[in-house]
Amino acid sequence: MQGYCDAPREALxxxxxxxxxxxxxxxxxxxxxxxxxxxxxxxxHAVQVWKIVGGNTSISFLEPLMNDLGIGLKGxxxxxxxxxxxxxxxxxxxxxxxxxxxETERGVFKGFVGGGLQHTGGFTIGNAKTGRTxxxxxxxxxxxxxxxxxxxxxxxxxxxxxxxxxxIRFDRLSRRILIPDADLLISPExxxxxxxxxxxxxLVGTISIDGIAIRVGGPEDDGMWFGDGGGGDALDLGQSAMxxxxxxxxxxxxxxxxxxxxxxxTSCNYGTVNINWFAPMDVRHPVIAxxxxxxxxxxxxxxxxxxLKHGFFALNDPGCGxxxxxxxxxxxxxxxxxxxxxxxxxDRRYLGPRxxxxxxxxxxxxxxxxxxxxxxxxxxxxxxxxLDAVAHRIIVKDGDLGHANATYLYESYYITAGGxxxxxxxxxxxxxxxxxxxxxxxxxxxxSMVMGPAIQRWGDENAFAExxxxxxxxxxxxxxxxxxxxxxxxxxxxxxxxxRQIDEFVVPIVDGSTVTNAGFRDPDDNAGNDxxxxxxxGCGQIRWFTTTNPLKYATTFNFWFxxxxxxxxxxxxxxxxxxxxxxRLASAINGPLGYSFVDTxxxxxGAYLGGVTRDLxxxxxxxxxxxxxxxxxxxxxxxxxxxxxxxxxESPAELRFKLEAAxxxxxxxxxxxxxxxxxxxxxxxxQRAATVTDSVTDVVLSSNIARFIQAGTRQMKALVRYRxxxxxxxxxxxxxxxxxxxxxxxx
Length: 747
Prior knowledge:
This protein is mostly beta strands. The protein has four domains: 9-217, no CATH class; 237-454, no CATH class; 459-591, Immunoglobulin-like, CATH 2.60.40.1170; 596-745, Jelly Rolls (Sandwich). The strands form ten sheets. Strands 3, 5, 6, 7, 8, 10, 11, 12, 13, 14 and 15 form an eleven-stranded antiparallel β-sheet that branches. Strands 42, 43, 44, 45, 46, 47, 48, 49, 50 and 51 form a ten-stranded antiparallel β-sheet that branches.
C-alpha cells in the first residue's frame, strides 16, 4: 500500500481516500517483569527496551470542521503545556505509572512492545455519554509503527480514536521519544456507537506525543550509530508515498463554498549524504508544493491554490533501505524516511508563500518573509493563528469537484537545496474521486502513486522546453480531430523549477490558416489578469502574453484554439519574465504546421543600424536594418547577416526558408546560403537581384536536406548577404530585413 512501506498487505487497507484502518491486534499490556524476562531470553545484542515515564501529549483539534460535522469540542481540561503545539494546541500530562514500552536497536526505534500511555485531563467530542475521554490512554496496534496507535477513553468510555500516519523519532542521548503530528481519526467502532457511521475514519485533528523514557532492558552499550551519511556526495531526496486527501475545513454554503484540503506525504533519502531538515527560521529545510488537477473535456486543469509546507523535523524512520540515522531530527539520513500526515501538512504554522522560495536552487528567503511578518529580518512573528478554515491550505471550490465525467489527481512535490541529483523522483500524483456527504467532501484515492509531474499523465505528447540550463518547463498537448476539416489543440504548460517564470507562449502557424475559438485559463478567478491573445496577420503565430501574471513554478496554465491544420511535429515558443542568461525557450511538440523563427542573429559584415531579432518574425515593415560595411576583397560581400534557428525535428521531408527584405539602392544581388553541418560549409540555395521595395523569396528544398539541421541540437543556420553587381543609386547602401523564417515539414 502506498505510504506504509513496511506494513504487511493484510494489515492495512485503503479507506476513505487512503486513510489507514487498524487491524484489531492490540497488544496485551505486559508487566514490566515479563518484558525484561522476554528480552533477556532473546539474547539480542544491541536491542534495548524503553518505558515512557513522563512527558505530555499535544492535540490540535480542527474545531471549525468538527462544528460543521455536528461533533463540537466540549469540556476541555488541559493539564500540561502543548510542547509540540499545532494550531490552538492543548496539552495533557503523561503519567509516570504508564506501562508503554518500545524497542530500539543501535539507538533507532525498532518497534512497540506493549503497555499503555496514561494521561490526566481530557475532552468531550459530541455527546457526553459517548464522547468523554477523561484520563484517556494510548496503546499500540501492533509492533510495527505502520499499524498505528489507538486513543481509548477510560472508565468504560466508548471513545476510540485512531492515530494514523505515525512517525517516530527517538533521541537516544536525551532519552526522549517524539511522535509528531499524527492524524487523529474517529474509529469506525466509535462512529457506530455515536450513531454516526458516516464519521468512520474522519480526521478531527493532529496529535503529538513527547515522552520521557527510561531503559528497562538490554545492554547499556547499544552500539549506537553516529555515521556521517556514508561515502560520496550524492544528494537525492525523493518522495516514496502520498495518500489520504482530506478536507480540513470549509467556508460558505454548498455548492458555492470553498474547501481547505490536505494530503499525507512520505519522503526518502535515496542519496549518500544527510539532508538538512532544520525548522524555520533556519533556511536549511525542504518545502512541499501541493496541487489538485481535473482532466475533463480534453484538458488538464489545475483547480487549486496553496502555500508551501516547510519541513521542520526529520523522523528518520526506516522504509527506504538501511536507515543510517544521524541521531538528530535536523538531518534526514541516507536510507531514512519521514512521514507528514494530513494534519501536519495542513498546519498553518509551517505553511508559507511560494514566491519566497527559488525552485531552481531550493533556497528559501527568510528575511522579510511571511513568517517574519514581512519585517526585514529573520525573526518568527507569524504562527498561522487567526486564519479562517481554508486559508493557505489547498484551496478548492465546490464547483470544481465532483464532475461526473472528470478524472481528478492530487500532486505533491518536494523541493530541496544543495543540488539534488534527481529532481523528478521528488514529485508524484494519484487519482481520486470526491463525494459530497451533505456536510463536507469525502475523497477516495483510486490509483497508485505515479512518479513525475501530473501533466505527464495527460495528452498525446509532452516535451521539455529547451534549453534547460536555468530550470525546467514542460509543455503537453492534446489534439482532437473535429471531423469537419478542423482540429482542436489543447495545450498545458507547467513550470517545474524555472525561477525566471514564463510570460509568453507562442504556437507558430503558417500564413493563411484558419484560427478560431482560442482561449486561456489559469487557476485563479481574476479575469483581469488573464493573458492577452494576439492573432496578428503576417506574423504566423498564435501568441499569448502577460506583463502582470507570469506562470510560476509548480503551476499549470492552459491555452487552446481550433484550426484547419492537422498535427505535425512543431516548435512552440516560450519567453521568460525575469532577466537571465538564456533567451527564449522552445518545445518540440505536436502542433499545426508552422514556422521556426530566428533565435539569434549576428552581423558578420556591415554596420548595424537598428532593429532586434524578433523583428524578423512578422511581415510588418519593422526591419532589422544593416548598412554597407568594409570589405577586404572583390569577392567579399559588404553586408552579411547570420541567422540561427531551431528545427522541430532532424529528418524533414521538406525544408523551406522565407525571406522578406528590401534594399535602398538598386544594383545589389541578394544571396541566401544554408549551413551544411556534416560538410562544414555554406551552401548557396538562392541568388537574385535585390529589390528596393519589400519582396518575398521562398526557398523550397526537398532532397538531401537533413544536412542543414544539426544532429542532437536541431540547430539551423542561414546566411543572407548582399553585394554590388551593378550601378548603385546610393553608395552607402543599406538593407532592411523584414521577415526571415524556416518551415520544417516532417514526414
